[in-house]
C-alpha cells in the first residue's frame, strides 16, 4: 500500500514528535535536577590581573 | 579515501564552503564551547544523513524539503534535550546556538547532495568526516581565542566532559593580562579569516601562472562602453 505524500509527511511528523515526547519524559527529571542545582562559581578568571566581565559564559555568572 | 580528505580539507564546511559561520563566530570564544557545539553539529550531521538515507524511498519530491527539515529538527531537539540533561551549564552557555543548528545549511546540503543518493553506511561516513571537519575548525578557532583572550586553554572542560576534566586547564602564565579583542566578535572574524587564508595558502599556493593570469584579466577589464 502506498501512502500519499501528505500522509507520509504527517505520519513522519507524528513519529518524530512521539519519539521526542518520549525522550523528554525520560530526561525531564534529570533536567529538573540540573536546573535546581546551584550554579558553579565563576572560575574563568584564573589570571588575577585580568579583570574582564564574564561575557562569554552567562551560566557561570554569579 | 576521498571522503576524509573532502570533509576535513578540500571541501571543509567552515573554511572552504563558508557555511555555519554564525555559530563559528558567536560561540567559539572558548575551547569548551567550541567543542560542545562542534560535537553537537557533527552528531546531528551523522544522524540526519543516516535518517535521510534510510527513508530516501519514502520521500516524494513534493515533500522532500519539509521531510528533511523535520528530520533535522528532530535530531537537533534530541541533542538539545541531552545537553540540558547532561551538560546543563554548557547548554545555558551555548544558549540559542544549539537549537539554531537546524538552520546550518551544511546539514541540509549534505542530506540533499549526498545522503539522498547513497546507502546508510556511506551517508554515515560522509556525515562523520564532514562533521569532524567542522568540529576541528571550531576547536581551532575556540582554542586560539581562549588562549589569546584569557590566557588559558581548556578551562571549564568539566562542563562537557564531567568532573574528570576539572583540572585539565593549561595556563602558560598567571600574569597574562588578557586580550579582549580575541574574545569579541571582531577577533573571531580576524581569526577565522587567518584560518581560511592559511588553509588556502597550504592547499592552493599562488603560482606564477596564476598571478600572470590575474594581471592579464585586470588589464582587459572593461566596465563602460561597447567593445570595439
Describe this structure in words.
Helices cover 52% and strands 0% of the residues of chain A. Chain A has one helix spanning 5-36. Helix content of chain B is 64%, strand content 0%. Chain B contains eleven helices and no strands. In chain B, helix 1 packs parallel to helix 7, helix 3 crosses helix 4 and helix 4 (64-86) packs across helix 5 (88-94). The model of chain B has no long low-confidence stretch (mean pLDDT 89). Chains A and B meet through helix 1 of A and helix 4 and helix 5 of B.
Could you name the key traits of this structure?
heterodimer; A: 62 residues; mainly alpha; 52% helix; 0% strand; B: 228 residues; 11 helices; 64% helix; globular
The secondary-structure element order of chain A is: H
How is the main sheet of chain B built?
A: none
Approximately what portion of the residues of chain B adopt beta-strand conformation? under 5%
Largest interface: A-B, 33 and 43 residues
Overall strand count of chain A = 0
Principal-axis shape of chain A: rod-shaped
What is the succession of H and E elements of chain B? Answer: HHHHHHHHHHH
Quickly give the structural class of chain B. Answer: mainly alpha
Instruction: Tell me the radius of gyration of chain A.
Output: 22 Å
Strand content of chain A: under 5%
Number of helices of chain B: 11
Query: Main β-sheet of chain A: number of strands, strand sense, barrel status?
Result: none
Average pLDDT figure of chain A? 75
| Bulk shape of chain B | globular
Mean pLDDT of chain B: 89
Share of residues in helices of chain B: 55-70%
Which regions of chain A contain 5 or more consecutive residues with pLDDT less than 50?
41-51
- Note the gap between the termini of chain B: 51 Å
